[in-house]
Amino acid sequence: MMLSYSQVLRRSLKIAAILVVTDLTIALVTMRLGLPPAGVFGDLLLLEVAALVLLAGLVDFGSSLGISHLRRIAFSSRQDFSFQKRSEIERKAMVFLFAGLMLLAVLILLATSILWNP
Based on the structure, what is the number of domains in the chain? Predict the structure, then answer.
């Protein structure tokens, strides 16, 4: 079953929300250690944006035609390339990409608020 765009958006929003809440919790806990919570929160967001975008790229790349042929040659895989399956995997990769973009938007808002209110 292929994901619809609304399902992709909902899953992305769930991932982004979970990560933001986790990051806020970690940032508030580290405040007791004397670290600036906004800095910790921003650093965590930056790492997660990079990880999500890389993960989306890896998922998408893993289903490409070239990798499918390489898998068949190198590992004697019997799976043939399917445009239907490729579309499904692209939608799964979009979940991670959209979640990363949502976190990037939060990161930009954080940086803007820090710059405006030093």
Answer: 1
